[in-house]
Each structure stands twice: as structure tokens, then as C-alpha cells.
């Protein structure tokens, strides 16, 4: 019998967040792994405390366990493209290229990397409007709601992402502003990672919306993170503002094969519970393919439709904001949640995290319509 214990972090929303104890991640038996996998797909975000000794190799092996046939790092080498918005935020561990170092501040040496300058993404670099500098210590925003995924070429969205908190600056709290006219706010720990459930997002749709998302597909932009590098985000971090500023297709790197453009279901099925998640990466959507074969290609309209579907699901009561402590190892179901960086650190607040995910061995599992509209 496995002695692993599981404790949901929020009894009213057990599907988002659980604490897992009595588990040895570096020497994980098959039985304990199955308990962990079931827990992950039931609670979608799980935290195992005091894992500071886990090596980058352990972390990569643990992450691969969820998808042994997985490919390389989830973004492959696409983050190397200098114009990609992801380029400044990730540093690769030289001997374990599936594992990236992220964080804030200057780190002289870590796992073969030297003189690392890390930068916690700040909304002022990404949003169309910003919180004034004088309020920056106390107020923050969701930086960018997303799925960890290249969304281009042969790289399937990773099944699972692992995040290890190596160094966490002394904690304080901030007020998160949605700044979208609703007046919504959320009290969050500094530098939290915010999660919302795609299952809840789906469940709260109307019958008509469910029919729409079950039968429509999203086409993502080619070289998506270069394409949006000249655009700005909505204040709630849920998609871009439409101003016609995307990098023109002819100025993107070449599209080698038409099949490199990814067209994915809007709804992805949970492999353990069978539940449906509304899983759309809002920043890089380009077109919607409808059931009848027609295509919505008016970008402003596409973004408004996606925003209308997703915004209810990021309401304050649905957000799980993880309060990081050093040694926390968090695994999340990247096919069932959206997540966002939050917060603003001073330059001398050093934060060091390790992130690992692997491009999945298979595309996301979509719904077999019409099995559920209930
Ligand atoms: Fe991420």
C-alpha cells in the first residue's frame, strides 16, 4: 500500500491544488507514481514540500515519467529566436536542456550557468496600459495567462510542467488588479503563480457555448511568440489588444510546412477523470475553425470570442494563487489549467526557480462530439 497522503488546498475547489506528502520523488516506486499521477489529474496543481535537494536530472526524470515518449523541452529551440517574447525569460541548464532556470536578479553561479541575470516578467513590458510606478510595490496584475506550449511545428503542448522554487525572496503581499472595468481585485502573495481550471471554465459555459467550443477549433499563429512580439496585452493578461500591430507574416521566420501551423481543439479531455477543459492559449490565437468548415479570421473578433469564453473562469473566486516557499515542487496539468506569472520584484530580490516540461508524445485529446453537451 502506498503511504502517500493527499490534502486538497481548498475544500470548496478541490479540483485546483493539493498538497502531496510522504513521497520520495527521487526514488519513486511505480505504485507511488500512479498515486501521484491520479492526484495530478484530479487536483491539477500539486505541491510537494521540501524538495530543494532534487537535482535537475531528478526533475527531468520525474517530468518525463508522465510521458515517457515525450520529446525534448516543450519549446524545443524556438525560444532562441531573439525576437520571441519568451527569449529573455528562460536560461537553459547546459547539462540538462529540458530544465530551464527562471527568476529574478543576479545569480553568480548555478548548475553550470554563470553570471545569470534573471528577470521576473513585469506587466509593464507586456500590457497596453500599466499600473503607475508609484503604486508598483503594492499593486500588480496577471502578467499573461497561458498554456506552456510552442503551438507551432511538431511540438505538442507538454502534458505536465514542474516548477521547483530554489530561492524565494522574503514574502509580502500585493493587490492584484484586473483593471478591466469590473473592479475585480485579488489579494496575492508576492510572486505567486496563479492557476485557473480549464474544467471549471468549461463547466460554467452556457449550453450554446459548450456546443460551440466542443465543435470549433483554434488556429494558432505561425511562430506565435514572434508574431505577437510587437503587440500588447489586455490588462487582465487574457489575450492581446487588437491594433493591427502583429508582425506581418512575411516578416516572420519562414513557414517550412503548412502543417507546422497548429489547429487544436478548444476542449481537451482529462485522461483520468474524463472531464473537459476549455484550453485555449489566448495570446496567440489567430483563427477559429467552425463545425461547418467555415473560418472566422477577423482577428479582433476571434480574440473577443475567446476572451468572452475565458474571462468568467479567471474571476477572483476561481483563482488558486500558490504561495511559494523554498523547496516547493509544483506539478501542474498543462492540458487542464491556465497559469500566469504575477508580481513585481525589486532588482535586489533574488528569486531562482527551475522549470521543466517536455513536448508531448501526442497532441491534446479533444472531445468526441456529440458525447457531452449536458
Ligand atoms: Fe508557463
From TrEMBL:
Keyword vocabulary terms for this entry: Dioxygenase, Iron, Metal-binding, Oxidoreductase
Family according to the record: Belongs to the TfdA dioxygenase family.
Entry protein name: TauD/TfdA-like domain-containing protein
Species of origin: Exophiala xenobiotica
Cofactor(s) essential for the protein: Fe(2+)
MF (Gene Ontology): dioxygenase activity; metal ion binding
Domain TauD/TfdA-like: 14-355
The keyword 4Fe-4S belongs to this UniProt entry's keyword annotation: no
Amino acid at each position: 500500500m502506498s503511504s502517500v497522503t493527499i490534502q486538497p488546498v481548498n475544500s470548496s475547489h478541490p479540483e485546483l491544488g493539493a498538497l502531496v506528502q510522504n513521497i520520495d520523488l527521487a526514488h519513486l516506486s511505480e505504485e507511488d507514481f500512479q498515486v501521484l499521477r491520479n492526484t495530478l489529474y484530479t487536483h491539477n496543481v500539486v505541491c510537494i514540500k521540501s524538495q530543494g535537494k532534487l537535482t535537475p536530472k531528478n526533475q527531468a526524470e520525474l517530468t518525463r515519467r508522465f510521458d515517457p515518449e515525450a520529446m525534448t523541452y516543450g519549446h524545443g529551440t524556438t525560444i532562441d529566436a531573439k525576437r520571441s517574447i519568451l527569449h529573455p525569460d528562460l536560461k537553459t541548464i547546459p547539462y540538462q536542456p529540458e530544465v530551464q532556470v527562471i527568476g529574478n536578479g543576479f545569480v553568480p553561479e548555478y548548475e553550470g550557468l554563470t553570471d545569470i541575470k534573471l528577470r521576473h516578467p513585469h506587466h509593464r513590458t507586456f500590457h497596453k496600459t500599466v499600473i503607475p510606478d508609484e503604486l508598483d510595490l503594492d499593486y500588480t496584475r496577471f502578467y499573461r495567462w497561458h498554456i506552456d506550449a510552442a503551438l507551432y511545428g511538431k511540438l505538442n503542448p507538454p502534458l505536465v510542467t514542474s516548477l521547483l522554487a530554489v530561492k524565494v525572496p522574503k514574502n509580502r503581499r500585493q493587490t492584484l488588479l484586473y483593471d478591466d472595468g469590473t473592479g475585480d481585485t485579488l489579494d496575492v502573495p508576492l510572486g505567486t503563480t496563479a492557476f485557473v481550471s480549464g474544467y471549471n471554465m468549461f463547466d460554467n459555459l452556457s449550453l450554446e457555448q459548450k456546443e460551440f467550443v466542443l465543435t470549433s477549433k483554434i488556429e494558432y499563429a505561425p511562430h506565435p511568440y514572434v508574431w505577437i512580439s510587437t503587440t500588447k496585452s489586455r490588462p487582465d493578461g487574457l489575450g492581446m489588444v487588437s491594433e493591427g500591430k502583429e508582425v506581418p507574416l512575411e516578416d516572420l521566420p519562414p513557414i517550412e510546412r503548412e502543417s507546422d501551423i497548429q489547429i487544436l481543439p478548444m476542449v481537451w479531455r482529462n485522461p483520468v477523470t474524463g472531464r473537459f477543459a476549455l484550453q485555449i492559449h489566448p495570446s496567440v490565437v489567430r483563427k477559429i475553425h467552425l463545425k461547418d468548415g467555415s473560418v472566422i479570421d477577423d482577428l479582433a473578433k476571434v480574440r473577443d470570442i475567446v476572451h468572452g469564453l475565458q474571462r468568467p473562469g479567471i474571476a477572483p473566486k476561481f483563482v488558486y494563487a500558490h504561495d511559494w516557499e523554498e523547496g516547493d515542487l509544483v506539478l501542474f496539468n498543462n492540458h487542464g489549467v491556465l497559469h500566469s506569472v504575477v508580481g513585481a520584484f525589486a532588482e535586489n530580490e533574488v528569486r531562482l526557480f527551475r522549470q521543466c516540461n517536455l513536448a508531448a508524445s501526442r497532441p491534446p485529446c479533444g472531445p468526441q462530439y456529440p458525447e457531452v453537451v449536458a
